Amino acid sequence: MRKMVWRHTDAETPVRRGADGQFYVAAQDVTAMLRDLARAFDQHGLSDGAVRPAQDRAAPERLDEDTMRTVASILRAQADEMDVQLIALAGRGPFG
Predict the structure, then answer these.
(1) Are strands 51-53 and 15-17 parallel, antiparallel or unpaired?
(2) Taking the mean position of all CA atoms in its chain, how far away is CA 18?
(3) CB 64 within 8 A of CB 47
(4) Residue pLDDT, tens place only, 9-51
């Protein structure tokens, strides 16, 4: 069984506070995290490691390969849509 590796760390995905007091994460970091999660769901769906014990349950829950691939597909679609919107905003100028 392959060990899943999470690529992002706090140092790689900085969170900043804006002048308005809100917290912000760079968009490319968000889309990269979505794609990393999608890759992890794809890999878990193909491995025997798809069983995870529920926090408050004694019996583990199993997500089947099709469910894992569907979740991965949704995450990739979200990342792609976000990229499309960001490209459109970037084309409008420095402040969208």
Answers:
(1) unpaired
(2) 23
(3) no
(4) 545 667 889 999 999 998 888 999 999 999 988 888 777 554 5
**3-class SS letters over the chain:** CCCCCCCCCCCCCCEEECCCCCEEECHHHHHHHHHHHHHHHHHHHHCHHHEEECCCCCCEEECCHHHHHHHHHHHHHHHHHHHHHHHHHHCCCCCC
Rounded to whole angstroms, the Cα distance separating 74 from 79 reads: 9
C-beta of residue 15 within 8 angstroms of C-beta of residue 23: yes
The 10s digit of each residue's pLDDT in 39-96 is 988 888 777 554 555 566 665 566 788 888 999 999 999 999 999 999 998 888 766 5
Alpha-carbon Rg for the chain, nearest whole angstrom, is 17
Against a cut of 0.90, is the pTM above it? Answer: no
